[in-house]
Amino acid sequence: xxxxxxxxxxxxxxLGIHLREDIAQQAFKIAxxxxxxxxxxxxxxxxxxxxQMKQAIIISAGVIGILAGMAFVLPAVAxxxxxxxMTLNVICLLLSGFGFVLGGGSVAVFTFRKRxx
Length: 117
What we know:
Layout: H1 9-35, H2 38-83, H3 88-116
Helix pairs in contact: 2-3
């Protein structure tokens, strides 16, 4: 630069800034070519988000099933303790409750396991 007649640091600094900006732009263009266009990437991220949302909803439904089952089981146990015998009402509540608990637990656990893989 001294041979070209530039003797002050101000023009050299401006040239350096311009050169760094050009390098950054070229690096960005190369990265876009390697990774892909933004629309394609956006669509791929949407697919992943949709799958995660579906799995979260299914797991939540499983947990709600467990809670609903417990809402049947606990009154049945309380009634059994109070009556001291297994009435038809207690048996129906227990079977229904255990069905909900097992169903909800299965849904939640298997969906969660699938999600981790």
